[in-house]
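ARCHIVE CARD
Drawer: 12
Card no.: 0347
Subject: one protein chain, sequence and derived structure
Cross-reference: see card 0346
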Amino acid sequence: MPCLLTDPASGAEFDADVTLTKVDGTNVTVSVQVADAPNNAPAPEPSESPATDAGGTLTLTAEEIGVTAARALTDAGVLPSPSVLCPGGSHEVSDGYSLECTAIQGGDQYAATVTISEIEGSSYSVNVVIPELAG
């Protein structure tokens, strides 16, 4: 049975699979497999000023892109409190740069395409498309 385990000290929520492995009268043996990472881990804050080079290319970390994408999904009302995981370390981005990421809400994972646009200095916008949730 899929369950949600909550750490009362931190509020961290973990997916947990609970299986009844043996029943002998009123004695029950239970196996519990808990996920390695919480569903609601705090996302790192983006840096105050992402790096730009002389040619106008913006360098962002995967974490910065993920945090911005998660905020965009929340602000648009698509997902209430997602985390977005993007691959790689640093990305040199320009207008129209796309990255395939994963949006996570609770125990659900969604393929998400994150596209960077409107780059001005260290400011930028993202468009996040989750085909599974597109209506």
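Annotation on reverse: The longest helix spans residues 62-75. Residues 78 and 133 are 8 Å apart (CA to CA).
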